[in-house]
Write a structure and sequence with these properties.
Chain lengths: 280, 242, 301
């Protein structure tokens, strides 16, 4: 029954116009960035190499598909989670608003299975969005800009990763990014269990992301204790894979924090939904 | 009243002083002539290779930059065409390989002054300063350590307005006869790296305490090993177009 | 009598200090249509939601098919079809897809042909591919029946199924329910605030008000046609009163040109005869069942 329920959830997600809004938004944003980089990518390269230009020159295909792909992923760090929350935040509260929650909960599917099947469907949707993003950034980016070494700009320097050493980083980077997005999906789904309308969970998710991002970027010792455990601190954990050497300890810590958040939030959602009186 | 004895002493002193001045002038003239001659010989040797292609292995050891060694190809065509071709990103000194060649090509633009000799790895090298004659010249000062026996530059310290100071050490092998090195070791100055956080790839980190004053400029090295020279085979100008 | 399909014992539901359901008990037997009657806010929907595990009871016992709903929820719900208040659907899906979705999680392996047959049964033939967003209220109600019945449940629970329907729609739904009872031998729990609706369909009923069960029993017995309330509207009230009292008929209420009698139908004809014979103009004679009157007073205090 769990997989039948999940299949139902996927049908519902596929039929909702908002599901395609996210994909369209990503296509548009990435398209714009690709065009901009094609026209003015040199300026961005100057930003990267500017501090060294008095003494050094950088030869080779600096503005390549790998770099453009990396830039796009970095730029979309806030946007993609919001697009995910837009769909997953509606999964339970949207049904409550529509009234279909009554029908759903009078079927022989346990409440836990309902939440878990919505969670799984949300994960699948997130995966589709991420795969589409990966296609646009990596495949289309490579087609437009060619391949080459990846120059990663950090606050304390440049890391140049050789072309042959980049593909696996992108692969695992996307896996870690997927985990970050699942975390957002879980957050919005859990908030959805507390709400009777779909706007509340989406706006609350956005608000929390912005609030924690701000806390994370204010360099005040007061926040240093809290910062390592905020999920926003680890949403960009995929970037650890683009360092040399890779800080594996930090990466695994980020993965653990994200998995921990997912588990706790899912548990809260399951508990809340199981005990909820359906009055609407 | 000046006695003849006193007059003799004065005259002797004057004559000695004049002789010393004449000697110094002659010496400096001769030295300048000597330095110019040395530089000319070096340049003449460099002129033997009108163009060349070589394989290069570039190893970078710079503060603020992490990059693995890469393979590249270098192309040079006299008087002023130079290109590095690489599939990977290659970081090379801005002054390139041809900077010295460009400086030496215009003998009216500088004066060469010998500063004595210095032993570099058991080779007695003549230290020659090239001082620009024009204020508008890009060159501020060039110091060359030249092996006079082989007419090879063993080390150079070039300071230019546009590119700062770069120290280059040369190692020669089978292509010494053309003045073409097997290896170049560049020492460059890198300014302290500062970049806006908004475009940096770092993720949120905890506040780091300042451990002490940091130098604004650090030094880094770039080693380029050259091999498989193909000399004077003719390179088209189109090759150097970007 | 066989074991009841639905057993409710001492059911209580509190929301804080507010007591929505107070100690309700009733049984529903196989093959019966059971009426659940009460004014708005009486606790009908709350009780039904507890039966369907949409709400948790504060106290009491609820058993369906002999099993506790709290511990055998999935097993029980597999055998139930229901409409709770108005039926809602996924507006962005077609009628056919909505039914397919329901069937899938009801545990029924249903083909497209069976879905079409069901839609035909509820009067939605030709509308299978249409999106529900374009359906009228009546059509949604029919579709609600389709999703209730698609997995062939043994027990059907209908919470105010005729709400918002036009008179023809009400008749259609009523006929559908009767069909389910007579042709398919379904057990039906039907809640409503309209007595006539229950009277026409139900075998047994309970009237609840303010969370309490007021009266429970066989519909025919409760709505005994022999005992009626008769209201005569006359031109001269005092004269009518005295004439009737002289004939041995005493009204239990006389006001505003109206005389109220609690009597039988036969006697009401006699009263009418006496009035007319004594020159009293009778403008109208309204007959109500005792229970109906009581219920109307409940919903219109």
């Amino acid at each position: 029954m769990f997989f039948k329920s999940t299949y139902n959830e996927l049908i519902k997600i596929a039929a909702k116009p908002r599901s395609y809004l996210g994909l369209a938004a990503i296509t548009l944003i990435v398209g714009l960035i690709l065009v901009a980089m094609k026209l003015e990518g040199g300026l961005y390269i100057s930003l990267l190499t500017g501090p060294f230009e008095q003494s050094l020159i950088f030869e080779g295909n600096v503005l390549n598909g790998n770099l453009v792909g990396f830039i796009i992923l970095q730029m979309l760090i806030i946007h993609v989670p919001l697009l995910i929350a837009f769909v997953t935040g509606d999964l339970i509260s949207g049904e409550a608003a529509m009234g279909t929650i009554r029908m759903l909960l009078t079927k022989p599917v346990s409440r836990n299975q309902i939440v878990l099947s919505k969670f799984l469907a949300g994960c699948i949707y997130t995966l589709i969005v991420l795969l589409w993003l990966a296609f646009l950034t990596v495949v289309v980016g490579q087609w437009l800009f060619g391949s080459g070494d990846l120059m990663v700009l950090k606050s304390d320097g440049l890391v140049v990763l050789q072309e042959g050493d980049v593909a696996w980083r992108f692969f695992y980077g996307f896996i870690v990014a997927f985990l970050s997005l699942i975390m957002i999906a879980t957050l919005s789904l859990t908030l959805s269990c507390f709400s009777e309308n779909s706007i509340g969970p989406i706006v609350t998710t956005m608000g929390l992301i912005l609030l924690f991002t701000i806390i994370g970027s204010i360099e005040v010792p007061l926040f240093d204790q809290v910062r390592p455990y905020l999920f926003t601190t680890h949403m960009a954990a995929w970037r650890y894979l683009f360092d040399d050497p890779i800080q594996w300890k930090d990466l695994w810590f980020s993965v653990a924090v994200l998995v921990g958040h997912i588990a706790v939030l899912l548990g809260i959602g399951l508990y809340k939904f199981k005990r909820k009186d359906i009055l609407s | 009243m000046i006695t003849s004895h006193a007059w003799t002493r004065v005259t002797f002193r004057k004559k000695t002083t004049s002789l010393v001045y004449l000697f110094c002038f002659s010496l400096s003239f001769l030295t300048a002539q000597n330095a110019s001659s040395t530089v000319s010989k070096v340049y003449k040797q460099l002129q033997k290779a009108k163009d060349y292609t070589a394989d290069a292995e570039v190893t970078v050891s710079l503060p603020f930059i992490k990059i693995a060694p890469i393979h590249a190809k270098v192309f040079l065509k006299q008087p002023d065409k130079f290109k590095v071709q690489s599939k990977s990103i290659a970081i090379v000194p801005r002054q390139g390989f041809d900077q010295l060649h460009k400086i030496l090509s215009d003998t009216t633009a500088f004066i060469a002054i010998s500063q004595g000799t210095e032993v570099l790895e058991k080779v007695p090298a003549q230290l020659i300063n090239l001082i620009p004659l024009r204020d508008t010249a890009d060159l501020i000062l060039a110091k060359l350590w030249i092996d006079p026996a082989r007419n090879l530059v063993l080390k150079s310290l070039l300071t230019t307005k546009s590119n700062g100071t770069i120290l280059t050490e040369y190692r020669y092998g089978q292509y010494a006869g053309y003045g073409l090195p097997d290896a170049l070791l560049f020492t460059v100055d890198i300014k302290k790296f500062k970049i806006p956080k908004s475009i940096a790839a770092d993720i949120n980190t905890t506040t780091k305490k300042e451990t002490g004053p940091e130098k604004e400029t650090k030094k880094g090295k770039i080693r380029i090993e050259l091999s498989n020279y193909v000399i004077n085979k003719g390179l088209p100008d189109a090759l150097f177009k970007k | 009598m066989s074991a009841p399909i639905i057993e409710v014992k001492n059911l209580v539901k509190n929301y804080g200090s507010f007591k929505a359901v107070r100690n309700i008990s009733f049984n529903v037997y196989e093959g019966n249509v059971y009426g659940f009657l009460g004014p708005n806010g009486a606790g009908k929907s709350t009780t039904i939601r507890i039966l369907l595990s949409l709400i948790r009871a504060t106290e009491g016992e609820v058993k369906l098919f002999g099993k506790d709903i709290r511990t055998h929820r999935d097993e029980i719900l597999r055998r139930i079809g229901c409409i709770v208040e108005k039926p809602d659907f996924y507006k962005y899906l077609s009628a056919e897809k909505n039914i397919a979705l329901c069937a899938r999680i009801s545990g029924a392996a249903v083909s497209k042909k069976q879905i079409h047959e069901m839609l035909d049964f509820v009067g939605l033939k030709g509308r299978e591919k249409d999106k529900v967003s374009g359906f009228s209220h009546g059509m949604k109600q029919r579709l609600g029946f389709a999703q209730t019945l698609i997995h062939d449940p043994e027990l059907i629970i209908l919470d105010e199924p005729t709400t918002g329907l036009d008179p023809q729609g009400i008749i259609d739904i009523r006929n559908l329910i009767l069909k389910l009872k007579t042709e398919k031998n379904k057990t039906i729990l039907l809640s409503s605030h309209i007595l006539s609706e229950i009277e026409l369909i139900a075998d047994r009923m309970v009237i609840i008000n303010k969370g309490e069960a007021i009266v429970e029993g066989n519909v025919r017995e409760l709505l005994n046609a022999q005992e009626v309330i008769v209201v005569f509207t006359v031109d001269h009230l005092p004269k009518a009163q005295s004439v009737l009292e002289a004939s041995g008929f005493a009204a239990y209420l006389a006001q505003d040109h109206e005389l109220h009698f609690q009597t039988s139908l036969a006697q009401s004809a006699e009263i009418n005869k006496v009035l007319c014979a004594n020159g009293i103009q009778v403008y109208s004679m309204e007959t109500k069942r005792k229970l109906e009157d009581y219920f109307l007073k409940l919903i219109n205090p």
